[in-house]
Amino acid sequence: MEGPLSVYGDSGAQDLRTFFSHFFSQTAPDDYVAILAYLTEERATENALRALCQDLQERFRIATTLGYGPRYLHSTGQYHKGGPNKGLFVQLTGGPDADLTIPRSPYGFSAFREAQALGDFQALKKHGRRILRVHLGDDVGRGIVQFRETLQGALAGGGSV
After folding, report:
1. In what order do the strands lie in the sheet with 87-93?
2. Could you give the CA distance from residue 64 to residue 153 in angstroms, rounded to a whole number?
3. How far is Cα 130 from Cα 33, in angstroms, rounded to an integer?
4. Tens of pLDDT, residues 107-142
């Protein structure tokens, strides 16, 4: 954990820059990066995530996609697990713990969203997909900025993100 960021995935890295560098070193020319955002859809978040997609697209010269979870699970989520193994998946979670209730349910929407994110992460791993999860902390905007800055530092050896 560095700043607001917590990262989950397969890497023996001790710091985030090494972790991100290792993850993105797996990129091949015919791959794509999918940003899987389990975040509240807000204009500022959307703009920051689109900028992140553009950073990655320009750096690696590959396609990038952006989907909000759990909604994308009913469309591209099926392709991620069943299509060719060409994706690098970056799952983003975070935000304040303010919760919306689900009628006649013992849990709220934030618990439901976290469960969906965890289930998707595990399913992608089970299907042998390259995935990392970045928890952005309570301040999603700050977390995205920190993620982009750390990623730029991680990939500085081959040009900025």
Report:
1. 6-9, 130-135, 87-93, 32-38, 63-68
2. 20
3. 10
4. 887 888 888 899 999 999 999 999 999 999 999 999
